[in-house]
Design brief:
Layout: E1 13-18, H1 24-37, E2 42-46, H2 53-57, E3 69-72, E4 75-79, H3 82-94, H4 97-104, H5 107-114, H6 119-133, E5 145-149, H7 153-169, H8 174-186, E6 192-199, H9 202-219, E7 226-231, H10 243-248, H11 262-290, E8 294-298, H12 307-318
Helix pairs in contact: 1-12, 3-4, 3-6, 6-7, 6-8, 7-8, 7-9, 9-11
């Protein structure tokens, strides 16, 4: 439990994943913003084809690209493009960056690479390892926290497993050595944390449970909590848990200035209560199936549109995980 209750900010690398639509990118942005506000030097690395984090942290900002850009004091965001990362790696290994750039501009070469499996994941993780290793002139970590907006759950397992597969396939040479470094980073509980994000619904719950099982059994990547996003709070005040039923028992002819009839109010109340109870049920199921404590985040009616909305989920995101009874 002591390990479980360590703060997310105690790690150097947090890899956020989750089923598509669970809000993992919002969690990435909220975590990064909160960490930067606490005084850490934070780097966010997106690995998808499009940029989403910048518009949440700094709405209206221009794309940050592979070079990245500071969007707030202490907070830099970049998107890892596999082709640029590969060109950078080969340029360093071969010492002829100009030749590498010339080859990479060849359309046939790029088409061949597009059809080749596995290299994107490996080179992306290699770039993440490189970023994690960077230091200041004084020898301190350049990025005190590196937050990765990883692929969605299904692809995320493949993404994390590539270094092991590459290391098994290649027995010697620089590729084997570098894959080993990445694998060691991913498996180090002092440095790394995998943070799954789920919704309190059946499909995300089951997919998250499968992710937690596979990660711990096959990959060895540290995971000690699950974020459950968009949990609907209790709709009625304490002591009035059955308010919808009480309203339903009022005379149908009763009127309330400015409000719908009792039957409509009761139906709306029943819907909100059912939604709240269903969320509690599936949150408990996630805790039972994964065997992990939960980090519940509130449902925001207007969604996440910018830093003010991110701040509303940042505090509960950094709170100690909760043990939830099934």
């Amino acid at each position: 439990m002591a390990e479980t209750l360590r703060s997310i900010l105690a790690r150097r690398l947090v890899i956020v994943t989750g089923k598509g639509g669970t809000g993992k990118t919002s969690v990435v942005a909220a975590l990064a913003l909160a960490a930067a506000r606490s005084g850490l030097r934070v780097l966010v690395a997106e690995v998808g084809r499009d940029e989403h984090v910048p518009r949440l942290i700094a709405p209206g900002t221009k794309p940050v690209g592979y070079a990245g850009r500071a969007l707030r004091p202490g907070l830099t965001v970049m998107r890892i493009d596999p082709f640029e990362a590969l060109a950078e790696y080969l340029g360093l290994q071969l010492g002829v960056r100009a030749v590498v750039d010339l080859v990479f501009r060849n359309r046939a070469f790029r088409q061949l690479m597009e059809a080749s499996p596995g290299w994107r994941e490996l080179i992306t993780l290699g770039k993440i390892w490189h970023l994690e290793q960077m230091t200041t002139p004084d020898g301190d970590p350049l990025h005190q926290l590196l937050v990765v907006d990883a692929p969605a759950t299904g692809h995320g397992l493949t993404f994390l497993d590539v270094p092991r597969v590459a290391g098994s396939a290649v027995r010697a040479g620089p590729l084997r050595k570098h894959a080993g470094w990445v694998e060691a980073m991913l498996g180090d509980p002092e440095r790394t944390l995998l943070l799954p994000v789920a919704l309190a619904e059946e499909l995300p719950a089951r997919e998250t449970a499968e992710l937690a099982l596979r990660v711990r059994r096959d990959l060895g990547v540290p995971v000690d909590r699950v974020v459950v996003n968009c949990l609907v709070g209790a709709p009625f005040p304490p002591g009035l848990d059955d308010l919808d039923e009480r309203v339903a028992r009022l005379p149908a002819a009763a009127t309330f200035p400015g409000l719908p009839p009792p039957g409509v109010l009761a139906a709306c109340g029943a819907h909100l209560r059912a939604r709240h109870e269903l969320g509690r049920h599936w949150a408990a199921q996630i805790a039972r199936m994964t065997g992990l404590p939960l980090v519940p985040l509130p449902y925001l009616a207007n969604g996440i549109r910018g830093p003010d909305d991110l701040a509303q989920i940042a505090t509960p995101l950094l709170a100690a995980p909760e043990a939830v009874a099934a």
